[in-house]
Amino acid sequence: MAHPSQLGFQDAASPVMEELLHFHDHALMILFLISTLVLYIIVAMVTTKLTNKDLLDSQEIEMIWTLLPAIILILIALPSLRILYLMDEINDPHLTIKTVGHQWYWSYEYTDYENLEFDSYMIPTQDLAPGQFRLLEADHRMVLPIDSPVRTLITADDVLHSWAVPSLGIKLDAIPGRLNQTAFIVSRPGIYYGQCSEICGANHSFMPIVVEAVPLKHFEDWSYMMIKDA
């Protein structure tokens, strides 16, 4: 999860998020190089005492400032397109979960299991246990097995919502009447927090997302208990 005064991204918990972090560092280094070059040129032009009033054009300079930006854009675009295709790739998921956004809570339906569905509401501040996080804890978590491809079908029941979990590199709009889907793999056990990222009304900031990733054996035990109690 995010920490106070944090400047960078959250730690990656999925292969897609790792690729996004690498691309961010790649683009940031290019940005630093460009900024340094531009700053050097500005300082050099302001401080120099040399002038050439007869210079009208320079084919070499025009070729450089045309080709160099094109090369930089290619170096940024190719990794970006690769990640976009990776994010849209869905190959034989082991588990499918339908996620529905409501005003103002989430509901989850495990379509591979019978009678395994529940609503997930934010825990009010006065009901939080010691160590729990304000505005981030939910009464029912979305439990997933680690190292397993998971497909999430996302829609909304009333208005626009957005299901986003930064550590997993997921942000997908929940649109009434439309079914969006994404796939991801959680790399390690843990609890990952997210929030609705589309302004959806008065209680927009009170519908958190909590994903709990556990080993497969623990997930099977949890699903058995949930179905038994239903």
UniProtKB/TrEMBL annotation:
Positions of transmembrane segments: 27-46, 67-87
Biological processes, Gene Ontology terms: ATP synthesis coupled electron transport
Membrane topology, record value: Multi-pass membrane protein
Cofactors required: Cu cation
Catalysed conversion reaction: 4 Fe(II)-[cytochrome c] + O2 + 8 H(+)(in) = 4 Fe(III)-[cytochrome c] + 2 H2O + 4 H(+)(out)
GO molecular function, one term: cytochrome-c oxidase activity
PROSITE patterns reported for this sequence: COX2, COX2_CUA, COX2_TM
Residues covered by the Cytochrome oxidase subunit II transmembrane region profile domain: 1-91
InterPro entries named among the record's database cross-references: CcO_II, CcO_II-like_C, CcO_II_C, Copper_CuA, Cupredoxin, Cyt_c_oxidase_su2, Cyt_c_oxidase_su2_TM_dom, Cyt_c_oxidase_su2_TM_sf
Signal peptide annotation: none
Regions annotated as coiled coil: none
Residue ranges occupied by any Cytochrome oxidase subunit II copper A binding domain in the UniProt entry: 92-225
Cellular localisation: Mitochondrion inner membrane
Alphabetized UniProt keyword annotations: Copper, Electron transport, Magnesium, Membrane, Metal-binding, Mitochondrion, Mitochondrion inner membrane, Respiratory chain, Translocase, Transmembrane, Transmembrane helix, Transport
GO cellular component terms attached to this protein's record: mitochondrial inner membrane
Free-text cofactor note: Binds a copper A center.
Pfam family, one: COX2_TM
Record's function text: Component of the cytochrome c oxidase, the last enzyme in the mitochondrial electron transport chain which drives oxidative phosphorylation. The respiratory chain contains 3 multisubunit complexes succinate dehydrogenase (complex II, CII), ubiquinol-cytochrome c oxidoreductase (cytochrome b-c1 complex, complex III, CIII) and cytochrome c oxidase (complex IV, CIV), that cooperate to transfer electrons derived from NADH and succinate to molecular oxygen, creating an electrochemical gradient over the inner membrane that drives transmembrane transport and the ATP synthase.
PANTHER family: CYTOCHROME C OXIDASE SUBUNIT 2, CYTOCHROME C OXIDASE, SUBUNIT II
Family classification: Belongs to the cytochrome c oxidase subunit 2 family.
Stored NCBIfam families: CoxB
Protein name, as recorded: Cytochrome c oxidase subunit 2
Source organism of this protein record: Anabas testudineus (Climbing perch)
